[in-house]
Specification:
This protein has 378 residues and is an alpha+beta fold. The protein contains ten helices and ten strands. The strands form three sheets. Strands 1-4-5-8 form a four-stranded mixed beta sheet, with helices on one face. It starts with 6 loop residues before the first helix and ends with a helix. The mean pLDDT is 98. The structure holds flavin-adenine dinucleotide. The site of flavin-adenine dinucleotide has 23 residues, from helix 4, strand 1, strand 3 and helix 10.
Length: 378
């Protein structure tokens, strides 16, 4: 066993950490307060090659592995979740279906501007009546001539409506009980995108409802084999869970960093509050759980990078880091006392940004269902 990161991974982590601290941290509070999408930061991440980490260089990506991707997402989430989810949804939800299941021609056509980060991609799975039960999709795509005519709606779709969004990959019924994935380009007649959804957290990330009304999509935009959409999206979610789990580690680490610094600085009863055992125990618990959770995330990434089954570990990592990050932001805010409840302190943003990690890409309950299935329970 080797618990050390390679020197390449270490260097990469240092690069992303420096970017997060020097560029994201100074902007995060204002972006959150104004619910403003971080266009400038996305452009800078594109320059650094962060918007296409796991895609090959021939397609405009960085040729990195899943571990590098998880490291980048953790480092960004440690500072700001809106920026981290923008990168993660673009990579593992938006671009990945085309990379994993698209034909060579589709990859050449769609991926290079996405992997270079010049344009963004989204993944539209959730519908008003199909959330945890994502296979209950009602959106239809009917073949007419050389077009799919799409009708239906999607909700909560990340990155769908920015000025630089190129496309969304959606699931749709292409026949009785037959789900397929289709890429729909922004600007296609009949494809309407709502105003940004107002949210508790992730305020600088772009979340939209989509509607399709007799929206004609070229027949060549169907990804992979017709009728394979259900299996495709399950695979996409398995991979995506590694990045959401990495966000959980990042948020927990960020909450710990803030609490640690504050506890040393804040004095009560004539001493720094970090000298009280009650505070020390909270920090000790956080540090222990963060160490464990990072191990889970890196193991899932390691398995994926070796082409081995990783779905069980990804679900475990997602579940554990979701719940851990909840405990961590709560303990960190408690350590900040009343100041943590004000917008003057970053912990209040991390606290609001955390909750969705227990809901998106499968709720805690859904992760337990997935894990139970892998344990062979009926
Ligand atoms: C900010 C944000 C961004 C998002 N981005 C995207 C995106 O880019 N693309 C996308 O497709 N979706 C996206 N989503 C949607 C997200 O994945 C769903 O919200 C999530 O899967 C849960 O679905 P739901 O909200 O319909 O909840 P429901 O499925 O209605 O669940 C409600 C509650 O019931 C529980 N429940 C449901 N079924 C069971 C069961 N069988 N057993 C036990 N408990 C159960 C759930 O765990 C939950 O607690 C996003 C959501 C948000 C809020």
């Amino acid at each position: 066993m080797d618990f050390d990161l390679s020197s390449e991974h270490e260097l990469f982590r240092d690069t992303v950490r420096a970017f997060a601290v020097e560029r994201v941290a100074p902007a995060a509070e204002e972006l959150d307060r104004e619910s403003r999408f971080p266009y400038e930061l996305v452009a800078e991440m594109a320059e650094l090659g962060l918007m296409g980490i796991p895609f090959p260089e021939e397609l405009g990506g960085a040729g990195g592995d899943t571990l590098a991707y998880a490291i980048a997402v953790e480092e960004l989430a440690r500072i700001d979740s809106s920026v981290a989810i923008t990168l993660a949804a673009h990579t593992s939800l938006g671009t990945m279906p085309i990379y994993l299941f698209g034909s060579d021609e589709q990859k050449q056509r769609w991926i290079p501007p996405l992997a270079r980060g010049e344009r963004l991609a989204a993944f539209g799975l959730t519908e008003p009546g199909a959330g945890s039960d994502a296979g209950a999709t009602r959106t239809t795509a009917t073949l007419r001539g050389d077009s799919w005519i799409v009708n239906g709606s999607k909700v909560f779709i990340t990155n769908a409506g920015t000025d630089i969004t190129r496309c969304v990959t959606i699931t749709a019924l292409t026949g009785e009980g037959e789900i397929s994935n289709l890429v729909i380009e922004n600007g296609t007649p009949g494809y309407e995108i709502s105003a940004p959804v107002r949210k508790l957290g992730w305020k600088a990330s772009d979340t939209r409802a989509l509607s399709f009304s007799d929206c004609a999509v070229p027949v060549g935009n169907l990804i992979g084999t017709r009728g394979q959409g259900f299996h495709q999206f399950l695979q996409i979610l398995d991979g995506g869970r590694i990045s959401v789990a990495a966000m959980g580690v990042g948020v927990a680490q960020g909450a710990y960093d803030l609490a640690y610094a504050y506890a040393k600085e804040r004095h009560q009863f004539g001493r720094p509050i970090s000298s009280f055992q009650a505070i020390q125990f909270k920090l000790a618990d956080m540090a222990t759980e963060i160490e464990a959770s990072r191990g889970l995330v890196w193991k899932a990434a390691w398995l994926k990078d070796r082409g081995r089954p990783f779905a069980r570990e990804a679900a475990m990592a997602k579940l554990y880091t979701g719940e851990l990050s909840n405990r961590a932001v709560n303990a960190s805010l408690q350590i900040h006392g009343g100041y943590g409840f004000t917008d003057e302190f970053a912990i209040s943003r991390l606290y609001r940004d955390q909750k969705i990690l227990e809901i998106g890409e499968g709720t805690n309950e859904v992760q337990r269902m997935v894990i139970a299935r892998h344990l062979g329970l009926p």
